[in-house]
Design a protein that fits this description.
Strand order of the largest sheet: 1-2-3-4
Order of helices and strands: EEEEEEEEEE
Structural class: mainly beta
Number of domains: 1
Distance between the termini: 35 Å
CATH architecture: 6 Propeller
Number of helices: 0
Length: 164
């Protein structure tokens, strides 16, 4: 499999998924910009299908990103977080056929402010995150990269993210 930081998910039917992104200087990257993939295996990892993450209507150069995991709901629907860096573009893709195909759906995330500061979306909403469904059925999105970052352009240090 190509890409970096592969994260593995195994669904109840044994399908394996590995999500990743490909840096622009990766030897396997012929396009010259960062983009993401989801790899899928139905034979316990002996062979893999690779699906490039593309959001219709957006320039590929925006750097697509995907959630670290594929989330399986109780009805076996699969969810995958997909977004574009440096934008407010974020979707939850879904699959009803064990990830063979994905419904790209509607834009589902509106990124608002954070502690009276604009949300810094240098990394997209689904970069380095983990999708989780709690016992009450609420979907949670755990982010490693949180808002906001220091605003270097005007010398102001944003606060809050580091003390959460």
């Amino acid at each position: 499999m190509i890409g970096r930081e592969q994260f593995l998910t195994c669904t109840s039917d044994g399908t394996l998924f590995a999500t990743c992104h490909l840096l622009k200087n990766d030897v396997n990257n012929t396009s010259g910009y960062v983009h993401s993939y989801i790899h899928r295996s139905t034979d316990r990892g002996r062979s893999w299908q690779r699906i490039r993450i593309v959001l219709d209507g957006y320039d590929d150069k925006f750097s697509s990103r995907v959630s670290r995991n594929v989330l399986e709901l109780p009805d076996r629907t699969l969810l995958l977080g997909v977004g574009l860096n440096r934008t407010d573009v974020a979707y939850l893709w879904s699959s009803q056929n064990s990830g063979e195909t994905w419904d790209k759906g509607q834009k589902v995330v509106k990124i608002g402010g954070y502690r009276d500061e604009p949300y810094d979306n240098e990394d997209c909403f689904f970069t380095e995150n983990w999708l989780y469904r709690n016992t009450s059925g609420k979907l949670l999105n755990f982010l490693r990269c949180g808002p906001p970052r220091p605003d270097v352009s005007n010398g102001r240090q944003a606060t809050g993210a580091q003390d959460e």
